[in-house]
Amino acid sequence: MKTRSAALIVACLLGSGSAFAQQAPAVPSLMQNSPPIPVGQVQVNANAAFAESGQPIKSGLVWRVYEDRGDTIQPTIVTRSSSPTPSFTLAPGNYIIHVGYGFAGASKRISVQSGSLSERLTISAGALRLKGAVGDTPIPGQRLSFSVYVPLAQNSEGRLVLANGKANDLIRLPEGTYHVVSTYGDANAIMRSDLKVESGKVTEATLNHRAATVTLKLVGAAGGEAFAGTAFSVLTPGGDVIREAIGAFPSVTLAEGDYVLIARHEGKVRTREFKVESGLDRDIEIIATP
Fold it and tell me: Which tens digit of pLDDT belongs to each residue from 167-178?
Protein backbone atom coordinates (compact mmCIF):
# COMPACT_ATOMS: atom_id res chain seq x y z
CA MET A 1 0.00 0.00 0.00
CA LYS A 2 1.33 3.43 -0.90
CA THR A 3 2.05 5.72 2.04
CA ARG A 4 1.42 9.46 1.81
CA SER A 5 3.21 10.47 5.01
CA ALA A 6 5.43 13.07 3.38
CA ALA A 7 5.33 16.57 4.83
CA LEU A 8 5.09 18.88 1.81
CA ILE A 9 6.19 22.47 1.51
CA VAL A 10 5.91 24.24 -1.82
CA ALA A 11 8.84 26.65 -1.80
CA CYS A 12 10.26 29.49 -3.85
CA LEU A 13 10.66 29.72 -7.63
CA LEU A 14 13.52 27.64 -9.03
CA GLY A 15 16.71 29.43 -9.90
CA SER A 16 16.25 32.22 -7.38
CA GLY A 17 18.81 32.69 -4.64
CA SER A 18 21.36 29.87 -4.92
CA ALA A 19 24.19 29.12 -2.51
CA PHE A 20 26.21 28.42 -5.61
CA ALA A 21 25.42 31.69 -7.40
CA GLN A 22 28.40 32.86 -9.41
CA GLN A 23 30.00 36.21 -8.82
CA ALA A 24 28.33 38.92 -10.93
CA PRO A 25 30.48 40.06 -13.87
CA ALA A 26 31.97 43.51 -13.79
CA VAL A 27 29.88 46.28 -15.36
CA PRO A 28 31.41 47.08 -18.76
CA SER A 29 32.61 50.56 -19.61
CA LEU A 30 30.27 52.75 -21.67
CA MET A 31 33.09 53.01 -24.22
CA GLN A 32 33.07 49.25 -24.83
CA ASN A 33 31.15 47.83 -27.78
CA SER A 34 29.70 44.35 -28.26
CA PRO A 35 32.00 42.06 -30.25
CA PRO A 36 31.16 42.32 -33.94
CA ILE A 37 29.31 39.45 -35.59
CA PRO A 38 31.62 37.76 -38.13
CA VAL A 39 30.74 38.40 -41.74
CA GLY A 40 28.27 35.83 -43.02
CA GLN A 41 27.35 34.69 -39.52
CA VAL A 42 24.17 35.11 -37.45
CA GLN A 43 23.94 35.71 -33.69
CA VAL A 44 21.22 33.82 -31.79
CA ASN A 45 20.54 34.95 -28.21
CA ALA A 46 18.65 32.35 -26.16
CA ASN A 47 16.93 32.20 -22.79
CA ALA A 48 14.44 29.92 -21.05
CA ALA A 49 11.43 30.50 -18.80
CA PHE A 50 8.99 28.45 -16.79
CA ALA A 51 5.70 27.75 -18.51
CA GLU A 52 2.64 29.64 -17.25
CA SER A 53 4.53 32.05 -14.97
CA GLY A 54 7.07 33.17 -17.58
CA GLN A 55 9.67 33.48 -14.81
CA PRO A 56 13.20 33.32 -16.31
CA ILE A 57 15.22 30.23 -15.43
CA LYS A 58 18.55 31.39 -14.03
CA SER A 59 20.44 28.14 -13.37
CA GLY A 60 20.62 24.44 -14.14
CA LEU A 61 20.31 24.79 -17.93
CA VAL A 62 22.21 22.91 -20.64
CA TRP A 63 21.84 24.19 -24.21
CA ARG A 64 22.58 22.30 -27.43
CA VAL A 65 22.23 23.50 -31.01
CA TYR A 66 21.87 20.88 -33.76
CA GLU A 67 22.03 21.23 -37.51
CA ASP A 68 18.53 20.47 -38.81
CA ARG A 69 18.71 18.00 -41.68
CA GLY A 70 15.07 16.96 -41.61
CA ASP A 71 13.26 14.23 -39.70
CA THR A 72 14.89 11.35 -41.57
CA ILE A 73 18.52 12.22 -40.77
CA GLN A 74 20.16 12.20 -37.33
CA PRO A 75 20.86 15.84 -36.35
CA THR A 76 24.48 16.87 -35.81
CA ILE A 77 25.40 18.93 -32.76
CA VAL A 78 26.92 22.30 -33.66
CA THR A 79 27.53 23.92 -30.28
CA ARG A 80 26.51 23.79 -26.64
CA SER A 81 26.46 26.00 -23.55
CA SER A 82 25.58 25.90 -19.84
CA SER A 83 24.98 29.65 -19.60
CA PRO A 84 21.44 30.67 -18.60
CA THR A 85 21.44 33.20 -21.48
CA PRO A 86 23.85 31.98 -24.16
CA SER A 87 24.67 33.67 -27.45
CA PHE A 88 25.41 31.38 -30.38
CA THR A 89 27.19 32.50 -33.56
CA LEU A 90 25.91 30.36 -36.42
CA ALA A 91 26.21 30.14 -40.17
CA PRO A 92 22.94 30.84 -42.03
CA GLY A 93 20.77 27.75 -42.13
CA ASN A 94 18.24 25.64 -40.27
CA TYR A 95 18.83 24.47 -36.70
CA ILE A 96 17.20 22.76 -33.72
CA ILE A 97 17.86 24.52 -30.43
CA HIS A 98 17.34 22.36 -27.33
CA VAL A 99 17.53 23.27 -23.65
CA GLY A 100 17.70 20.69 -20.87
CA TYR A 101 16.68 21.35 -17.27
CA GLY A 102 17.45 18.21 -15.29
CA PHE A 103 15.03 15.57 -16.61
CA ALA A 104 12.91 18.23 -18.36
CA GLY A 105 13.57 20.12 -21.55
CA ALA A 106 12.25 21.90 -24.62
CA SER A 107 13.31 22.27 -28.24
CA LYS A 108 12.49 24.46 -31.21
CA ARG A 109 13.30 24.56 -34.90
CA ILE A 110 14.76 27.86 -36.07
CA SER A 111 15.89 29.28 -39.39
CA VAL A 112 18.64 31.90 -39.31
CA GLN A 113 19.62 33.97 -42.32
CA SER A 114 21.17 37.30 -41.31
CA GLY A 115 21.66 39.79 -38.48
CA SER A 116 20.68 38.53 -35.04
CA LEU A 117 17.61 37.08 -33.34
CA SER A 118 16.41 36.12 -29.87
CA GLU A 119 14.71 32.87 -28.91
CA ARG A 120 12.89 32.05 -25.66
CA LEU A 121 12.01 28.45 -24.85
CA THR A 122 9.46 27.61 -22.16
CA ILE A 123 9.76 24.55 -19.92
CA SER A 124 6.96 22.98 -17.84
CA ALA A 125 9.20 21.88 -14.99
CA GLY A 126 9.76 22.11 -11.26
CA ALA A 127 11.84 20.21 -8.73
CA LEU A 128 11.83 17.93 -5.70
CA ARG A 129 14.04 18.30 -2.63
CA LEU A 130 13.77 15.19 -0.43
CA LYS A 131 14.68 14.37 3.16
CA GLY A 132 13.94 11.63 5.69
CA ALA A 133 13.14 11.40 9.39
CA VAL A 134 12.24 8.94 12.13
CA GLY A 135 9.66 10.70 14.25
CA ASP A 136 11.07 14.18 14.89
CA THR A 137 14.68 13.08 14.30
CA PRO A 138 16.19 13.82 10.86
CA ILE A 139 17.95 10.92 9.16
CA PRO A 140 21.55 11.72 8.09
CA GLY A 141 21.58 12.29 4.35
CA GLN A 142 24.32 9.72 3.72
CA ARG A 143 22.04 6.96 5.05
CA LEU A 144 19.22 7.73 2.63
CA SER A 145 18.64 7.09 -1.04
CA PHE A 146 15.64 7.95 -3.21
CA SER A 147 14.16 6.48 -6.36
CA VAL A 148 11.70 8.51 -8.43
CA TYR A 149 9.14 6.92 -10.75
CA VAL A 150 6.50 8.14 -13.18
CA PRO A 151 3.32 6.27 -12.11
CA LEU A 152 1.96 3.80 -14.68
CA ALA A 153 -1.39 2.03 -14.58
CA GLN A 154 0.10 -1.33 -15.58
CA ASN A 155 2.52 -1.73 -12.66
CA SER A 156 2.75 -0.69 -9.01
CA GLU A 157 6.08 1.16 -9.21
CA GLY A 158 5.94 2.92 -12.57
CA ARG A 159 8.74 3.93 -14.94
CA LEU A 160 12.04 4.68 -13.20
CA VAL A 161 13.23 8.26 -13.69
CA LEU A 162 15.98 8.49 -11.06
CA ALA A 163 17.78 5.85 -8.97
CA ASN A 164 19.97 6.50 -5.91
CA GLY A 165 19.00 10.15 -5.54
CA LYS A 166 20.58 11.90 -2.57
CA ALA A 167 18.93 13.79 0.28
CA ASN A 168 18.69 17.59 -0.20
CA ASP A 169 19.64 17.40 -3.89
CA LEU A 170 17.52 19.49 -6.25
CA ILE A 171 15.90 16.94 -8.57
CA ARG A 172 14.63 18.85 -11.63
CA LEU A 173 11.63 17.16 -13.27
CA PRO A 174 8.86 17.84 -15.78
CA GLU A 175 5.63 19.06 -14.22
CA GLY A 176 3.50 16.15 -12.99
CA THR A 177 2.97 13.55 -10.25
CA TYR A 178 5.74 11.14 -9.22
CA HIS A 179 6.03 8.06 -7.04
CA VAL A 180 8.98 8.39 -4.63
CA VAL A 181 10.61 5.49 -2.78
CA SER A 182 12.86 6.35 0.18
CA THR A 183 15.32 3.71 1.45
CA TYR A 184 16.90 4.14 4.88
CA GLY A 185 20.00 1.96 5.24
CA ASP A 186 20.42 -1.13 3.07
CA ALA A 187 17.74 -3.51 4.30
CA ASN A 188 13.94 -3.14 4.42
CA ALA A 189 13.40 0.34 5.91
CA ILE A 190 11.44 1.74 2.97
CA MET A 191 8.76 4.44 2.69
CA ARG A 192 6.75 5.55 -0.34
CA SER A 193 4.84 8.65 -1.30
CA ASP A 194 3.21 10.24 -4.34
CA LEU A 195 4.41 13.84 -4.81
CA LYS A 196 3.35 16.57 -7.22
CA VAL A 197 5.85 18.75 -9.10
CA GLU A 198 4.51 22.15 -10.18
CA SER A 199 6.05 24.34 -12.86
CA GLY A 200 8.48 26.91 -11.46
CA LYS A 201 8.31 25.59 -7.88
CA VAL A 202 10.30 23.37 -5.53
CA THR A 203 8.32 20.72 -3.68
CA GLU A 204 10.12 19.87 -0.44
CA ALA A 205 9.16 16.57 1.18
CA THR A 206 10.24 14.71 4.31
CA LEU A 207 9.44 11.00 4.23
CA ASN A 208 8.87 9.64 7.72
CA HIS A 209 10.27 6.16 8.34
CA ARG A 210 9.21 3.79 11.08
CA ALA A 211 12.52 2.03 11.66
CA ALA A 212 15.48 1.61 13.99
CA THR A 213 19.11 0.48 13.83
CA VAL A 214 20.05 -2.63 15.77
CA THR A 215 23.55 -3.97 16.52
CA LEU A 216 23.82 -7.76 16.39
CA LYS A 217 26.02 -9.60 18.92
CA LEU A 218 26.86 -13.14 20.00
CA VAL A 219 28.16 -12.99 23.55
CA GLY A 220 29.15 -15.42 26.31
CA ALA A 221 27.09 -13.53 28.91
CA ALA A 222 24.71 -10.57 28.85
CA GLY A 223 26.67 -7.40 28.17
CA GLY A 224 29.84 -9.41 27.47
CA GLU A 225 32.35 -9.12 24.69
CA ALA A 226 31.05 -10.06 21.23
CA PHE A 227 32.56 -13.05 19.41
CA ALA A 228 34.38 -12.11 16.21
CA GLY A 229 33.67 -13.91 12.95
CA THR A 230 30.02 -14.62 13.72
CA ALA A 231 27.68 -15.05 10.74
CA PHE A 232 24.28 -13.43 11.34
CA SER A 233 21.01 -13.77 9.43
CA VAL A 234 17.95 -11.62 10.06
CA LEU A 235 14.68 -13.24 8.96
CA THR A 236 10.99 -12.41 9.06
CA PRO A 237 8.80 -14.70 11.20
CA GLY A 238 7.81 -16.36 7.91
CA GLY A 239 11.43 -17.22 7.10
CA ASP A 240 12.29 -14.59 4.48
CA VAL A 241 15.91 -13.42 4.74
CA ILE A 242 16.14 -9.65 5.26
CA ARG A 243 19.86 -9.19 5.89
CA GLU A 244 23.02 -11.24 6.34
CA ALA A 245 26.29 -10.03 7.89
CA ILE A 246 29.54 -11.35 9.32
CA GLY A 247 31.46 -9.77 12.18
CA ALA A 248 31.60 -9.16 15.92
CA PHE A 249 28.82 -6.55 16.03
CA PRO A 250 27.37 -5.61 12.64
CA SER A 251 24.58 -3.03 12.53
CA VAL A 252 21.45 -3.15 10.38
CA THR A 253 18.56 -0.70 9.96
CA LEU A 254 15.20 -2.46 9.95
CA ALA A 255 11.58 -1.47 9.54
CA GLU A 256 9.43 -1.67 12.65
CA GLY A 257 8.24 -5.24 13.27
CA ASP A 258 9.09 -8.77 14.47
CA TYR A 259 12.19 -10.69 13.40
CA VAL A 260 14.22 -13.86 13.98
CA LEU A 261 17.98 -13.63 14.45
CA ILE A 262 20.25 -16.59 13.64
CA ALA A 263 23.92 -16.58 14.73
CA ARG A 264 26.45 -19.15 13.46
CA HIS A 265 29.84 -19.47 15.15
CA GLU A 266 32.34 -22.35 15.23
CA GLY A 267 29.83 -24.86 13.89
CA LYS A 268 27.07 -23.97 16.35
CA VAL A 269 23.79 -22.23 15.55
CA ARG A 270 21.79 -20.07 17.98
CA THR A 271 18.50 -18.26 17.38
CA ARG A 272 16.50 -15.51 19.03
CA GLU A 273 13.29 -13.66 18.26
CA PHE A 274 13.31 -9.88 18.67
CA LYS A 275 11.18 -6.83 17.97
CA VAL A 276 12.14 -3.54 16.32
CA GLU A 277 10.41 -0.42 17.64
CA SER A 278 10.58 2.76 15.60
CA GLY A 279 13.28 5.16 16.80
CA LEU A 280 14.66 2.73 19.41
CA ASP A 281 18.26 1.90 18.40
CA ARG A 282 19.68 -0.91 20.56
CA ASP A 283 21.84 -4.04 20.80
CA ILE A 284 20.35 -7.45 20.05
CA GLU A 285 22.35 -10.12 21.88
CA ILE A 286 22.32 -13.87 21.60
CA ILE A 287 23.88 -15.72 24.55
CA ALA A 288 26.29 -18.43 23.43
CA THR A 289 25.25 -21.10 25.89
CA PRO A 290 27.46 -24.24 25.99
Answer: 999 999 999 999
